[in-house]
Amino acid sequence: MPEALRAHFETKAGEHAGVLGVFLCQASRLPELITELIKVKPKQPLPLSLIIDTGLGGVPKAISIVESRGELLALRMVEMPAPSDVDEVWLERVSEFVPEDVIRVVEPRRGVGWLDGVRKVIEHGSWPKIRCGGLSSENFPSVDEVADFLSVVSASSGASFKATNSLHRAVRHTAEGSGVVHHGFLNLLVASARCLSGGDVRGALEETDGESLAKEAKALSDDAAKAVRALFGSYAAASFAEPVADLAELKLL
Fold this sequence. Notes:
Layout: H1 2-12, E1 23-26, H2 30-40, E2 46-51, H3 59-67, E3 73-81, H4 88-97, E4 103-107, H5 114-123, E5 127-131, H6 143-154, E6 161-164, E7 173-174, E8 181-182, H7 185-197, H8 201-206, H9 210-218, H10 222-231, E9 232-236, H11 241-249
Parallel strand pairs: 1-2, 2-3, 3-4, 4-5, 5-6, 6-9
Antiparallel strand pairs: 7-8
Helix pairs in contact: 5-6, 6-7, 7-9, 7-10
């Protein structure tokens, strides 16, 4: 926790602060986070995304803890995995527990009925989250699965999504050692743009030419860029240095 906070505040004070989003922390580690923040004495409350790893029933307590420490923490987002069957009652409770001014992010499990779950999440005013990787190859969705997800989200007026896991590089690539093909966050961005304009979404997700993707991203009009930014709300990565290095190399900063 001390290392994570130190890295966050150093980045916030650096030249690429505008690329950095909120600080992610599991609900189970809130006491640890608060203890360290008391030592740091931040000038501004830390913008927080709260990852619920204590079950839906633990949400009210976790939010109460955050809100009681307003001088240290500013709750921006609450994220949680959905049960295998994303039902209306569960989603209603999520809406009840999380304040209206906080973004709710719900991750339906991929599998049978997955896209129906994504639709339900959107209908209840939450962002669906797509997991793009993990510790095993099964955690990596196929190009078709990602394209179908984007199609569902973009078809819903005003909907946004979050992506997570194994997205620390801009462009689709095969990881050394594991041989697993990783999705790129720039691929997702360009695919989102094509989804909104009726282009070849799968082609964008499969592209491995970073310069080609960068050129297409740079060519977006202001209105198109804003629409993409509204759809592709945010993504989480384990590294900050790697995404920034890739963006710098592609002259996208």
